[in-house]
Amino acid sequence: MMRSSNDPTARSRSVGTVAAVAAIGGLLFGYDTGVISGGLLFIRTEFGLSALMEGVVVSSLLVGATIGALVSGRLADRFGRRTVLLVTAGIFAVGALIAGLAPDATVLVLGRFVLGLAIGPASAVVPLYIAEMVPADRRGALVNSNQLMITIGIVVSYAVGFLFAPIEGWRWMLGLAVVPAVLLAAGMAVLPETPRNLVSRGFPARAEDVLRSIHGKADVAAELAEIAAADERDRQNRSARGVLRDPALRPMLVVGIGLAVFSQIAGVNTIIYFAPSVLETSGFGTSGSILAQVGVGLINVLMTVVAMLLIDRLGRRPMVIAAFAGMGVSMAALGLVYLMPSQSGLVGWFALVCMAAYIGCFAFGVGAILWVLIAEIYPLKVRGAAVGMATMAHWLANFVVALTFPLLIEGAGATATFWIFAVVCAAATVFCVRLVPETKGRSLEEISEAREEAAR
């Protein structure tokens, strides 16, 4: 348990430490989803993978993530966010070892599935943990530290892929995820449970201690009373109703699940998973394709930092609308590349620019907003379960895209495939304009109360 402090600088450091440690889960999320892109170039040769089996190797992680996300929300509500993240760290380590030591494609698929069982809970519970631990005026930026760590994890996976490419060391690429898994376990072992979850599970005294350790003594009683009042309202309103049966929750479930699904079917992971394969056809070569993707990953990190600086100023809604619009334009332009007689030379570089622009728009808006928004918009008693449902939808959509993309490229061609994604981005823009709310600067309890009043 962190010590209480009345020093604003010390409290700021405490809050930053909480976000940084929890966001190691985001680093693992990014690393384990991104590392397959470089490793796949060598795995397909060593194991003789067909286009379908290539999709299975990539998407097996996503099946595990879908299952992990589905169960993690309710487990986080029942046993606590911290406990779930501690268990998740262990699953990450086991999955990385299985994948890195896999003797054949079947065991590799198993290892990727186990990794998915950890990524699902990490993607759902890490932003939830941070959102419930930090003050409202910094929540957007600090929850987004998870997204920043996801992008850093992706870049690190690309860099590791480049370093091990000369020796075709895909096993090292996959197995090195053990290191951040150990760091996550060590960090979460010394962090407390969130005060909101402690109140929900009947431990108000412990919740008060946590609030003091993070925010200092000022206004702790008022904040604790606000959390307790919100918890009591939830108990009265939802004692006999599930998440799906609550009419007041349905609009926000549509927003959370819809945004999660659109974030995936807009095609982002075709860039994260398959960019080296796409760039290889554009004349970059194997090592050059992996190195080029490192550059795309760095843009992902840079634009995530920009988003962190602006999210609590500009707000969630305008950023995500602008992002989907920009992604659509970038995908449409990428489709044009494959109408050219040759994809090498300047045309190949144009393809790289399109990918970089797409990832930059995603990082600035969709990547920055998704995990923040779904951690904010649900009431305390069902927050874990509702976030888990949105996260499950995210991974299920991710699975469908990863499994079908190689087949879609093979059957419909690159131009038609990327233009389909451009149309999806346009639909997502309309969805956000019509349905996504603004939540900046409000406490989680204020957001919950405003949502209930709007539903009456």
Describe it.
The mean pLDDT is 82. This protein is mainly α. The chain is built from 19 helices and no strands. Helix 1 crosses helix 6, helix 12 runs antiparallel to helix 16 and helix 14 packs antiparallel against helix 15. Helices cover 83% and strands 0% of the residues.
Apparent shape: globular
Q: Could you give a short account of the major beta sheet?
A: none
Task: State the share of residues found in helices, binned by percent.
Answer: over 70%
Can you write the helix and strand succession as a string? HHHHHHHHHHHHHHHHHHH
Overall SS class: mainly alpha
Radius of gyration: 21 Å
Mean pLDDT: 82
Question: Key features?
Answer:
456 residues; mainly alpha; globular
Short account of what is shown:
The protein has 456 residues and is mostly helical. The protein is built from 19 helices and no strands. α6 packs antiparallel against α14 (286-314).
Secondary structure: elements and pairs:
Layout: H1 8-22, H2 24-47, H3 51-79, H4 81-100, H5 105-133, H6 139-164, H7 170-175, H8 178-190, H9 195-200, H10 204-215, H11 220-238, H12 250-265, H13 268-280, H14 286-314, H15 316-337, H16 346-376, H17 380-412, H18 414-435, H19 444-455
Helix pairs in contact: 1-5, 1-6, 2-5, 2-6, 2-8, 2-13, 3-4, 3-5, 3-17, 4-5, 4-8, 5-6, 5-16, 5-17, 6-14, 6-16, 10-11, 12-16, 12-17, 12-18, 13-14, 13-16, 14-15, 14-16, 15-16, 15-18, 17-18
